[in-house]
Specification:
- The protein is an alpha+beta fold.
- It folds into 2 domains: 183 residues, Up-down Bundle (Fumarate Reductase Cytochrome B subunit); 144 residues, Sulfite Oxidase, Chain A, domain 2.
- Strands 2-1-10-5-6 form a 5-stranded mixed β-sheet. Strands 3, 4, 7, 8 and 9 form a 5-stranded antiparallel β-sheet that branches.
- The longest helix has 34 residues.
- It binds the ligand Nc1nc2c(c(=O)[nH]1)N[C@H]1C(S)=C(S)[C@@H](COP(=O)(O)O)O[C@H]1N2 and molybdenum atom.
- The site of ligand MTE has 17 residues, from loops.
């Protein structure tokens, strides 16, 4: 293969860019797929940082030829570079929207989420094609790919590439398009049909411990502690004797999925505060899970909103174990990570608790704009 014009530096840059794209694709898939995502929760924050740092590095690297033009022009197919730069630029832009977590409107985020994936597929397919063309050229140095491949072989290559595209499409484009559809119609979208028993459709069932903690209903107690006149210890029946409230709201995880129009039923935190005689000067409400690990915290004013519930029913059925049975918090105005599952203690306090995800870099203020 001709070496002329390919500076060593450019060669290294090119190799590094492709390697980084590979790592970005892998870390991106890890962050995206709910099944994998769930298993990797302890490492997600680190994977996310690696993904963002490498993504920025790749974008930066692509500008190098613009600032340090190579001496000869023959070395580069300008279009290869421009296409890549354009695509990576667009992917980075959608990435920035995603990384800002809560600063931008949720609808932007959902769109960015889909396009981050769709454009990545295009980029990876494009890179594969580019690598493939080079490979064919290096095997047949004198010819372009079209001339090198005889018709039969071309047909085979066509099928092979088509097959690869179909697999990629199935894995990424289809769910991404689904997400676009859901994000465009999130207000109007009909809720999935409720299932009697078991987790409700549409939710991704998260846990940060091994498995989903199970608590027999007879053994369950909810403690209300901290700055309260009367600390409470309620069994399920006593909880059901308090005023019950129903709300119908979308439930949205910060990673992009939304379940429209969830019917929650439970006890308002404001009603619980009244029952326990919570000190009005306690500025925060902290929540603990009997999974032993997860915690959350709300400013008192947020917790007192009429749609913030300790819920025990969803879509007409008792909560499933996977979704926080017997009782979970629901904060419809905020991203899902605020809605702590398997709640067994509510504490009125002067000081906020740094929640599980907040300790890992998520903002405490998680209002969906
Ligand atoms: N105890 C506990 N509560 C939790 C979580 C968790 O892992 N453990 N995940 C949170 C996140 S990030 C989301 S999006 C929702 C998901 O609710 P679901 O599992 O019912 O879909 O629960 C939240 N509450
Ligand atoms: Mo989430």
């Amino acid at each position: 293969m001709q070496e002329s014009g390919y500076g060593r530096g450019y060669r290294a840059l090119h190799t590094a860019a492709i390697a980084i794209l590979g790592v970005l694709t892998v870390t991106g898939v890890l962050l995206y797929y709910p099944e994998v995502h769930t298993a990797l929760i302890p490492y997600l924050a680190a994977i996310r940082v690696v993904h963002i740092v490498l993504g920025s590095a790749l974008l930066g690297m692509l500008f190098v030829p613009g600032f340090f033009p190579p001496r000869t022009r023959a070395w580069i197919h300008r279009h290869d570079w421009k296409w890549t730069l354009g695509l990576v630029g667009a992917i980075s832009l959608t990435g920035v929207v995603l990384a800002l977590v809560t600063l931008l409107p949720a609808s932007w985020r959902a769109l960015a989420f889909s396009w981050h994936g769709i454009l990545t597929i295009v980029l990876v397919a494009w890179t594969a094609l580019h690598a493939f063309r080079k490979l064919v050229k290096s095997i047949h140095p004198l010819d372009s790919m079209e001339q090198a491949a005889d018709p039969e072989r071309r047909q085979f290559l066509g099928w092979a590439l088509g097959g690869m595209g179909a697999v990629l499409g199935y894995l990424l484009v289809v769910p991404a398009l689904g997400a676009v559809g859901r994000s465009l119609g999130s207000g109007a979208a009909s809720a999935p049909r409720p299932k009697p028993g078991g987790p409700q459709p549409g939710f991704v069932l998260y846990t940060v411990v091994d498995g989903y903690p199970r608590m027999p209903a007879q053994r369950y107690r909810l403690r209300v502690t901290g700055k309260v006149r009367t600390p409470l210890e309620l069994d399920l029946k006593e909880l059901l004797d308090l005023t019950q409230t129903k709300v119908v709201r979308n439930f949205q995880c910060v990673t992009g999925w939304v379940v429209p129009r969830c019917h929650w039923e439970g006890v308002r935190i404001s009603d619980l505060a009244r029952a326990a005689g919570a000190d009005p000067r306690a500025g925060y409400v902290n929540f603990y899970s009997f999974d032993g690990v997860y915690t959350e915290s709300l400013r008192r004013a947020d917790a007192m909103r009429p749609d913030v519930l300790l819920a025990h029913r969803l879509d007409g059925y008792p909560l499933a174990v996977e979704q926080g049975a017997p009782v979970r918090l629901v904060v419809p105005e905020m991203y899902g990570y605020k809605s702590i599952k398997w709640v067994d203690r509510v504490e009125f306090s002067d000081a906020p608790l740094l929640g599980y995800w907040e300790q890992r870099g998520y903002p405490s203020e998680a209002t969906i704009s």
